[in-house]
Amino acid sequence: MPDPDRPARKHSDSGLPSGSLTELMREVLAKGKSFRFRARGLSMSPFIKDGDVVTVSPLGGTAPRVGDVAAFLHPATGKVVVHRIVRERSGRYDLKGDNAAESDGALPTERVLGVVTQVERDGETIRLGRTSGAVVARLSRTGLLRKAVGAARRAGVRSRGRR
Amino acid sequence: MAHPIGLESAYGPSEDVVVREIEGELIIVPLVAGVGDLEDELFTLNETGRAIWQKLDGRRTLRTVVSELAEEFDAPASAIEQDVLGLLEELERRKIVVRKG
What we know:
The structure holds two protein chains of two kinds. Chain A has helices at residues 20-30, 134-142, 144-154, and strands at 8-11, 34-38, 53-57, 69-73, 80-89, 92-96, 103-108, 112-121, 124-127.
């Protein structure tokens, strides 16, 4: 046999080849299952922080909703990105990071892979519904959410929640 | 309850796994309780593991798998048997493979 080491080993998602997260996520969601992975980046902070573990669930035949935090294929990079749906127009969805200045553009439904249903941080688990995000979406779309978070930070307010 | 892995048994991939070959690596994601856990439950097989995995078609017995691999790799069947049984124990414990016969 070619290599006598342990034939199966645990793998870390951070060691995956580029693009493979997308492939695995699509395949898992296509089976109607959820997908748990470690989020990277600051664009959804403080709702999702760098290093949080998020669970993305399939839409299950329902349409994405304004306010949902969705995993989607970014039109420019083709990679999976988790941002909030801030507007729906004629079946296309504007997505934007709560902490980002620009939206990701209007995307067709098929680019939306699933929605975030759970966020884990520091041993705490927050399960998310899909009904209370519309106001946050409006704030995010208009940039007020980013300003509010910035103002709260300057005022020394520390956020513990994701909504 | 888990049963001992026997050479006369045949095993195949569980329906609750996603398996992808990505850039030469075989990546296995078990779907545990409806979740594909890329954070804590992602597996990869090395060359030995892949050679064994490719023969787990639910029809071949493990004895046949051992015999075929011994011939293909010109290696002692006793050493291969150890690898096969060791891997199968781990894969079955994690519900990545199921006994088919």
